Amino acid sequence: MKCKTCKKEFTYKRNKIYCSRKCKDRAYTFKHSGDKNYLARRRKYYLENIERYRQQEKQRYQKNTSKKIKSVLRYYYKHRDKILKYQINRLERLKKINPLIRDKYKIRIKSRCLYPLETSKCQVCSSTKDLQRHHRDYKNPKDILILCRKCHNNLHRAAK
Questions:
Q1: Running DSSP on this structure, what letter comes out for residue 118?
Q2: What's the CA angle centered on 41, arms 38 and 46, to 5 degrees?
Q3: Which of 32, 84, 101, 157 has the highest Cβ tally under 10 A?
Q4: What is the DSSP code string of 65-113?
Q5: CB-based contacts of 32: which residues, under 8 Å, 6+ apart?
Q6: Per-residue model confidence as pLDDT tens for the chain (160 residues)
C-alpha cells in the first residue's frame, strides 16, 4: 500500500493510510494550516468535554495496567527457574558480606524510627530544610547527628 502523504510503499496494517507517525502529523498539520482558529476551537472543545476525556483516560489506563500485569506474570512463569536461582545467589552473597556492612542497613532502618526528621533541626546551622542523618560510627547506632544537606556534605568533604 502507498502512503497518503509521501507515496512510499509500506506494509498494510489495520486501516493505516500513512507509513509513519511523521507522515500522519505532516498531513494533519497541512490539512488545518489555513484555519487560524482551529487550535482555539480544539481547546474549547476539549475544555467542554474534559470529563469524557478523563473517563477515557482512566479506562485506557486500567486496560493497559491489566495487560502489563499479565505480561509480567507471563514472563515470571516462563523464567521462574532463572529468577529463583538469581534470588538464592543474591541471598548467599548478602550472607557472605562483612557483618558490619550488613548490620549498617539494620541500624539505618532503626534510626529512622528513633530520630524522626520532621520535628528536628540541623545541629550545626539550625535549618529545618533537607535534613539528613549522619552516623559517626555504625558500631554505636545511637551516636547520630541530624544535619541539613549542606552541612552534611561539608562534614564529608572535611573528613576526606
A1: T
A2: 125
A3: 32
A4: HHHHHHHHHHHHHHSHHHHHHHHHHHHHHHHHS-HHHHHHHHHHHHHHH
A5: 38
A6: 788 778 888 777 777 777 887 887 777 666 666 676 777 888 899 899 999 999 998 888 888 788 888 888 899 899 999 988 988 888 788 777 767 666 777 777 777 777 778 778 999 999 888 898 888 887 777 788 899 999 999 998 988 7
